[in-house]
Amino acid sequence: MPKFFTARENISQDTIIIDNEDVAHITRVLRLGAGDMITVCDGRGFDYEAEISDIEPKRIVCNILSRRSCQSEADIDVTLYQGIPKGTKMEYIIQKTTELGIKRIVPVKLARCVVKLEDKKAEEKKRDRWQKIANEAAKQCGRGVIPKVSMPVTIEEAARELRDADLAFAPYECEENTTLKKTLTSPESPKKIGFIIGPEGGFDISEIELLSKAGIPAVTLGRRILRTETAGEAVLAMVMYELGDINA
Fold first, then answer.
1. What is the dihedral of CA 126, 195, 89, 106, to 10 degrees?
2. What would the DSSP string read from start to end of the chain?
3. Beta pairing class for 104-109 and 153-154
4. For the CA atoms of 226, 140, 184, 229, what is the dihedral angle to 10 degrees?
5. Which residues is 154 bridged to in the sheet?
6. Which residues, 6+ apart, have CB-to-CB distance to 222 below 8 Å?
7. What is each CA distance from 192 to 78, 188, 206, 244, in whole angstroms?
8. Per-residue confidence at 248, pLDDT binned at 50, 70, 90?
9. What is the pLDDT averaged over residues 68-80?
10. 102-136 pLDDT tens trace
11. Whole-prediction pTM value?
12. How many Å apart are CA 174 and CA 88, to the nearest integer?
């Protein structure tokens, strides 16, 4: 059954209104009409089985038939802090980590980032584009929550946020002793997890030192060095296998 998202304020006790870009997709691409069934998600973990009752030029009204918790969300809350890569790599990272269950993605301005966002307006434009990618990926893979793409932050801001997580770490190619496996298999059962990935050129040593002072350890992912666009999804898959719902 096709699945779409709508704002929570568009959902009442008996009806749901869809008034976003999905109106055109439902009517022109899928060619659905009154009486057809769809699934509508509020973006906060609840799915609604609904029947289309009325189609207007800019909105669709549906009758709610049932409501249930979405079964596609893991119990853990994982945030990726991603050093901003060049080109369209960030779009790929957002798409794939959304499919794997990420809850939040925070772009980080690091010393070796090639892309330099010039001002707040440029940052907002990029963030809006990235959020749209997350929205589409969440819809495609049946998520119950749309991951939030935050505004870009500095390494200092990222470190402060990471300190609040139950488990935080930084994959680093020069680390040799502390493994990700050892970090994930500690006796604790973390529910809020954060990790930070460097850009194409990796972390500057001063950034690793700053993270270490903030209590965020570096971990090794093994003998092979992963690309920045590979590392985030690989780490998230490992986290979800060990602590989340991939091994359910």
1. 0
2. --EEE--GGGB-SSEEEE-STHHHIIIIIS---TT-EEEEE-SBSEEEEEEEEEE-SS-EEEEEEEEEE-TT--SSEEEEEEEPPSTTHHHHHHHHHHHHT-SEEEEEE-TT-S----SHHHHHHHHHHHHHHHHHHHHHTT-SBPPEEPPPEEHHHHHHHHTTSSEEEEE-TT--S-BHHHHHTSSS--SEEEEEE--TT---HHHHHHHHHTT--EEB--SSPPPHHHHHHHHHHHHHHHHSSTT-
3. parallel
4. 10
5. 109
6. 179
7. 6, 12, 26, 11
8. low
9. 92
10. 999 999 999 999 988 878 898 999 999 999 999 99
11. 0.90
12. 27
Residue found by looking up tokens 């980590």 in the block: 97
- Distance, in Å, from the CA atom of 194 to the CA atom of 165, rounded to the nearest integer, reads 6
**Nearby residues of 158 by Cβ (< 8 Å), 6 or more positions away:** 81, 106, 108, 196
